[in-house]
Design a protein that fits this description.
With about 190 residues, the chain is of the alpha+beta class. The chain contains 8 helices and 4 strands, in the order H-H-H-H-H-H-E-H-E-E-E-H.
Length: about 190
Amino acid sequence: MPNSLIAKRYAKALFGLALEMNVVEETKADMELIMSVCLSNKDFSQLLKSPVIRSEKKNSVIRAIFKDKIGELSMRYLNIITRKKREIFVNQIAEEFIFAYKKFKNIFTIYFASATAISDEIRKKVITLLEGQTKGTVELIEEVKEELVGGFVMHYDDYKYDASIAYQLKKLKKGSAEINLFKREY
């Protein structure tokens, strides 16, 4: 079973349980904390991935780190994941939970890369336009990529819109490579 499928299933189960118990917001905050700990602490990530360390030891470390910081549901869920020897997927499960939360709340995460930083006025226009298109709330994640030369690249899920000068130059170069200047055509 692929890793992402395992993470999706566990996250879906946790989200359903959190929804049923009416603790979705609290559980989302817990998953964000778990993700930040996994990303910022390499030793913790290595501990979760280690096949040598027993599940009981991993569970006690998880309890020590997250005691009084996360809710009871999240702590119990981490305990179950550790018991089932799925602790290697904790970070992915947290990511999938947040993805499910955003889908439930109709929040769209859109990545916007441009050659230079955009102004507040343009940012507001882009968000307004995208909220009108998606009929939901837009979370815009901006990135400056000088290699774009100009324009922007925007992507969400499987959709990508590339309006950069670098892409236009690439298309032009590809189109000119197909033209054979030495071939006579009458």
